[in-house]
Design a protein that fits this description.
Structural class: mainly beta
Low-confidence stretches: none
Distance between the termini: 38 Å
Shape: elongated
Strand content: over 45%
Number of strands: 11
Oligomer: single chain
Number of helices: 0
Mean pLDDT: 94
Length: 121
């Protein structure tokens, strides 16, 4: 299974960006999907996550992005998206997607390659 991210770039404060992450390769079932970010000199942090995808489903956001970012998914494409609105300079970071999935070998987790988001003031 591979993850491919896209959608990062440079945006002015108050602007919007949409990140995409698509999983492909083999037969697998995605159990959880999420976005994380890591700013220079800081630890990686949770941005948004979808869990329990095989049952009721749950969405959680990091406190700093609540009300501004929205995570969504497209089951048919094994893809997820992060709509980021009202971006601020403190949102500048490398954004990573991560999935938890199951295949014939059991449960695994996989990270995307990361995409840089830069917000100018």
């Amino acid at each position: 299974v591979q993850l491919v991210e896209s959608g990062g770039g440079l945006v002015q404060a108050g602007g919007s960006l949409r990140l995409s992450c698509a999983a492909s390769g083999g037969r697998f079932s995605i159990d959880a999907m999420g976005w994380y970010r890591q700013a220079p000199g800081k630890q990686r942090e949770l941005v948004a996550i979808l869990t329990n995808l095989g049952s009721n489903g749950r969405t959680d956001y990091g406190d700093s992005v609540k009300g501004r970012f929205t995570i969504s998914r497209d089951n048919a494409k094994n893809a997820m998206y992060l709509q980021m609105n009202s971006l601020q300079p403190e949102d500048t970071a490398v954004y990573y997607c991560r999935i938890g999935y199951s295949d014939y070998e059991g449960y695994r987790e996989l990270w995307g390659q990361g995409t840089l988001v830069t917000v100018s003031s």
